[in-house]
Amino acid sequence: MKILVTGGAGYIGSHTVVELQNEGYDVVVIDNLSNSCEKSIERVEKITGKKVPFYKCDILDREKLSEIMDKENFDACIHFAGLKAVGESVQKPWEYYENNIAGTLTLVDVMRKHNVKNIIFSSSATIYGDPAFIPITEECPKGVCTNPYGWTKSMLEQVLTDIQKADPEWNVILLRYFNPIGAHKSGTIGENPNGIPNNLMPYITQTAVGKRDHLTIFGNDYDTHDGTGVRDYIHVVDLARGHVKALAKIKEKAGLKIYNLGTGTGYSVLDIVKNFEEATGVKVPYEIGPRRPGDIATCYASAKKAYDELGWKAEYGIKEMCADSWNWQKNNPNGYED
Ligand code: NAD
Ligand code: WQD
Prior knowledge:
By secondary structure, the chain is an alpha/beta fold. The protein contains eleven helices and 14 strands.
């Protein structure tokens, strides 16, 4: 099976390419490198010992996409390409709607013209808004998103659902990721945020390596066991393997399917700091600050459906997630620039 991986030079994409190649899939990556660099691809090649065919291509570029699809005979697409910075999306909503929504519409149109009607889409727990219940099952109603990034995911879920409904030849799998952290065991690929990290784990690792002075914990007055926000952190390699399992479902011609990819366990910010310190032996200085606008108290998955229907569950625990995030950061203090 030949798989088109959009956004395959990025954090989750690069880890997924490793797992796909390890499972014997033919993989072709396209990426416009707006939030990544080709070095990640070279490092994936080192890990797997296989060539990763790569095209620098924007998913908005209909002509180039068509050329690539004329040349390669894809069976399915795993679609990671997109902009993902929550705060930036509030400042630049047009750019987010254009890139994520127009980009996906273009990609899907070129796919159907080439009779490639199998897609796995990177969605997010953010579509649940402030979730109606916890743990969050896939039946939990979609909520009110607090930023344009979240709306792009929510809207694209609807777009892909409607396309599948209108043409049952499509197989569409929506994967709702919770909070991916960690890195490949080799420590050679990992998350490489631009500028000041928005997400907790890269902020912690950059503090631990001395690039940031201290972590600010956004609020300790939530209704949680220690007052800090609770999330479902998942190792990126587990997440990547979830995509391999989803491909098996595509082969069964499953129509439309939706799965949470999380561990089912919630950890608070203070739990993460403690686990990081215990796993690495490195102190993380922190201060308590005000709440971050748009944040919710608690968000964790029910991971039952993915287990029942895909035979997938997360294998790595929180200590390993912390240790692997740290291994990547300390070996590459400046990400792929090292
Ligand atoms: P990332 O930024 O590391 O990877 C995304 C890749 O897409 C980058 O390499 C970027 O250069 C590329 N890209 C962006 N716009 C493009 C375009 N128009 N054409 C071609 N390539 C383009 O992000 P990631 O963390 O690996 O996330 C992958 C996907 O998963 C994204 O769609 C993201 O929204 C989604 N997601 C991420 C998280 C998370 O916390 N990391 C959680 C839920 C969902
Ligand atoms: C986790 C916890 C913060 C940074 C975001 C997106 C979501 C998805 C994953 C893409 C929260 C706290 C954080 C810091 C802190 N991405 N925190 N100090 O907000 O759960 O989800 O990333 O789809 O859409 O919204 O993740 O890592 O930003 O925060 O105290 O410097 O850590 O308040 O409780 P979040 P996060």
